[in-house]
Inverse folding.
């Protein structure tokens, strides 16, 4: 393989990831707006489908804890989330979806699924599993490439 072909081959995946990022951002924005949410609220609702403490949500969303706390407060004011004391440690607040938040999270996920359904219907189960494995490996590689010493709020401004 020539140097030019090797160089072009190395840039195929990063370019595809860039295109996917734009498509995901646009889709999250459009679908969340359809449901009267911000993309950040939709992401928070999906992350909270299982009750979690703020710290876990911050790690999961790759956001600073104080940003997630403010996002949780705004979502709670809209009746989407509620805080509960953790059973074993009353100092820990668990963030959980309200019935309305559960409904919106389910609608958000269903809408995302409906957008990929036509393509995935043409794929075999094996191809779908391979795609999920590849995407997971790419996400893991990108996440591990972020230096641990970089402050979380410098990594993401989503909240």
């Amino acid at each position: 393989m020539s140097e030019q072909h090797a160089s072009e081959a190395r840039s195929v995946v990063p370019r595809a990831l860039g295109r996917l990022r734009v498509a995901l951002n646009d889709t999250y924005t459009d679908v969340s707006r359809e449901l009267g949410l911000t993309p950040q609220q939709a992401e928070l609702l999906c992350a909270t489908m299982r009750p979690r403490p703020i710290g876990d949500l911050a790690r999961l969303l790759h956001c600073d804890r104080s940003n997630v706390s403010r996002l949780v407060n705004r979502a709670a004011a809209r009746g989407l989330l509620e805080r509960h004391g953790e059973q074993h440690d009353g100092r820990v607040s668990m963030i959980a979806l309200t019935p309305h938040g559960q409904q919106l999270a389910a609608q958000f996920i269903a809408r995302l699924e409906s957008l990929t359904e036509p393509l995935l219907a043409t794929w075999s189960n094996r191809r779908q599993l391979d795609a999920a494995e590849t995407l997971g490996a790419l996400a893991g590689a990108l996440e591990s490439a972020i230096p641990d010493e970089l402050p979380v709020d410098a990594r993401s401004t989503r909240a």
Notes: Confidence is low (pLDDT under 50) at residues 152-159. The chain has one domain: 3-155. Residues 3-155 form a domain with the Arc Repressor Mutant, subunit A fold (CATH 1.10.10.10). Residues 3-34 form the longest helix (32 residues).
